[in-house]
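Anyone have tokens for Probable aquaporin SIP2-1? Sequence:
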Amino acid sequence: MKKMAGGWRLLAADFLMSFMWVWSSVLNKIFVHRILGYGAHEFEGEIVRYAVSLLNMFFFTFMCKAARGGHYNPLTLLSAAISGDFSNFLFVLGARIPTQVVGSIYGVRLILDTFPGIGRGPRLSVDIAKGALTEGLLTFTIVIISLGLSRKVIYSFFMNTWISSVSKLTLHILGSDLTGGCMNPASVMGWAFANGEHITKEHLIVYWLAPIEGTLAAVWVFRILAGPKEDKTIAAKKDDTPQLKTEKLN
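Reply: yep, here.
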């Protein structure tokens, strides 16, 4: 019963956070361009927008921690589920990721009802192959960074969040002119569904298939790079234990 209640709590947190995430980018845009009055490509306006984006990522990282596992990005859940047990993998794939998608869809729907013409979401400005490569590489990079930070327990919560947020923002800027630099299939799905583009080839390949492949590749590479070191440490500890006991006996 407790496990079922915990599952429903995670689904509720995933829905709410995905809903809030799509809203956060729109509110950032409204704050910078309508309230502060900066133009679309003004340097000062871009600096303010990026600063607000960093604060926004700090806020959502704190929310994820407070929600005890809730999240707004399917790729984060997927990278963790791959290394977990099979039942958790099925729960993530069959329930949590669809819940994030539904939360994003309802979030975008409310955005368009509240602010008609506010935008159309990320747009692909290159061909499908280049777009898929871009999203795949961006996702691969951020997943590798996230996995590395999860191993570095010496860093504080603030430092981990700072490194992760700056990395995400940098990768987003690098990919913004090509694919939007999304690295979040659920939020893209929300806008694509609203525009009737959720079953197009470019959406499925660039914003779903490529990021998933990038996530799988990142987890695999990280296991190769970080796994042996951990195994050697464990083996060394096992080798040292009998020797210490022998010395004490002698």
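The two ends are 54 Å apart (CA to CA).
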